[in-house]
């Protein structure tokens, strides 16, 4: 029997679909001889966590740091490393930016394969097989793990929950190790809230073409008007207009909404890698040669401020 450790950040924005997806993967890999435990990093401040479909896991543990630890990367390297030790051969988490800060270090600590932006975890011939994009998402790579250790970040579709019951787990306080990242307001933009990207049915994303941080409010107003999640290109994040938790793309989050609206986004391959699952893509850009128009279902060439303002007047 092999042991797998699933890792989940639990916050006020965590959805039941995230618990369901991890439970579905845990159930599936049982066919390859894995038993699965769930480790929850809780940031809600509650004394307990209601774990949806928790009976899919052999053990469930919820921990919280005794002091603020920034994005939790260093803290999780310590906690996950301690939980994994030599007994765990597979670590699974979601492909979020915060997880990408700690997962490579954990993989290196026990000489494991590191698979980021994994879109499929399946069992074939009684062995575990993972599939994800490589070479800037130009091709897909499938890897059969065999007996190799691995750290896998899942960015695929939400999965249906297996049959199982919810459980309540008490949160234990774990000390933040000396040297862990402490939260400093200037380190990163805090997420202003709103609808989380993962699982959102509508996403309004902005890019470098927005022009400035002052103008970014138009994206947020537009998203609020249509009850959509706010997304961003890597360039907009690097400009400091929006927190990294809102980044969409190969180095951010993968989304698969019913409607994805790209405003002022040129369409670099790294961004397109994150929106391939969108059912409809609407692109607004002043450059008629922008690459985003090659994959858009609806393309609008013009000044985004005028177009978005007109759209909001009609809604």
Automatic annotation (TrEMBL):
<feature type="domain" description="Electron transfer flavoprotein alpha subunit C-terminal">
    <location>
        <begin position="197"/>
        <end position="275"/>
    </location>
</feature>
<feature type="binding site">
    <location>
        <begin position="247"/>
        <end position="251"/>
    </location>
    <ligand>
        <name>FAD</name>
    </ligand>
</feature>
<dbReference type="InterPro" id="IPR001308">
    <property type="entry name" value="ETF_a/FixB"/>
</dbReference>
<dbReference type="GO" id="GO:0009055">
    <property type="term" value="F:electron transfer activity"/>
</dbReference>
<feature type="binding site">
    <location>
        <begin position="264"/>
        <end position="271"/>
    </location>
    <ligand>
        <name>FAD</name>
    </ligand>
</feature>
<dbReference type="InterPro" id="IPR029035">
    <property type="entry name" value="DHS-like_NAD/FAD-binding_dom"/>
</dbReference>
<dbReference type="InterPro" id="IPR014731">
    <property type="entry name" value="ETF_asu_C"/>
</dbReference>
<dbReference type="GO" id="GO:0033539">
    <property type="term" value="P:fatty acid beta-oxidation using acyl-CoA dehydrogenase"/>
</dbReference>
<dbReference type="GO" id="GO:0050660">
    <property type="term" value="F:flavin adenine dinucleotide binding"/>
</dbReference>
<dbReference type="Pfam" id="PF00766">
    <property type="entry name" value="ETF_alpha"/>
</dbReference>
<feature type="binding site">
    <location>
        <begin position="233"/>
        <end position="234"/>
    </location>
    <ligand>
        <name>FAD</name>
    </ligand>
</feature>
<keyword id="KW-0274">FAD</keyword>
<feature type="binding site">
    <location>
        <position position="285"/>
    </location>
    <ligand>
        <name>FAD</name>
    </ligand>
</feature>
<protein>
    <submittedName>
        <fullName>Electron transfer flavoprotein subunit alpha</fullName>
    </submittedName>
</protein>
<keyword id="KW-0285">Flavoprotein</keyword>
């Amino acid at each position: 029997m092999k042991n797998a450790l699933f890792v989940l950040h639990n916050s006020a924005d965590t959805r039941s679909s995230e618990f369901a997806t991890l439970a579905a993967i845990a159930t599936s890999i049982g066919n390859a001889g894995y038993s699965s435990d769930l480790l929850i990093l809780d940031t809600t401040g509650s004394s307990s966590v209601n774990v949806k479909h928790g009976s899919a896991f052999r053990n469930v543990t919820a921990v919280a740091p005794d002091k603020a630890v920034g994005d939790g990367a260093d803290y999780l390297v310590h906690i996950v490393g301690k939980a994994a030790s030599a007994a765990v051969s597979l670590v699974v988490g979601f492909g979020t930016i915060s997880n990408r800060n700690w997962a490579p270090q954990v993989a290196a600590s026990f000489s494991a394969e590191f698979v980021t932006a994994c879109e499929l975890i399946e069992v074939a011939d009684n062995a575990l097989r993972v599939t994800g994009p490589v070479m800037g998402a130009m091709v897909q790579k499938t890897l059969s793990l065999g007996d190799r250790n691995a750290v896998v970040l899942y960015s695929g579709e939400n999965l249906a929950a297996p049959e199982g019951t919810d459980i309540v787990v008490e949160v234990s306080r774990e000390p933040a190790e000396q040297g862990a990242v402490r939260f400093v307001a200037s380190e990163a933009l805090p997420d202003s809230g709103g609808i989380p990207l993962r699982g959102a049915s509508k996403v309004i994303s902005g890019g470098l073409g927005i022009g400035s941080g002052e103008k970014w409010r138009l994206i947020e107003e537009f998203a609020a008007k249509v009850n959509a999640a706010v997304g961003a290109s890597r360039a907009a994040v690097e400009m400091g207009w929006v927190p990294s938790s809102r980044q969409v793309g190969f180095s951010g989050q993968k989304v698969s909404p019913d409607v994805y609206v790209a405003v002022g986004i040129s369409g670099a391959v790294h961004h397109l890698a994150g929106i391939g699952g969108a059912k409809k893509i609407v692109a607004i850009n002043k450059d008629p040669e922008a690459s985003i128009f090659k994959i858009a279902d609806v393309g609008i060439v013009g000044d985004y401020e005028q177009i978005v303002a007109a759209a909001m007047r009609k809604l």
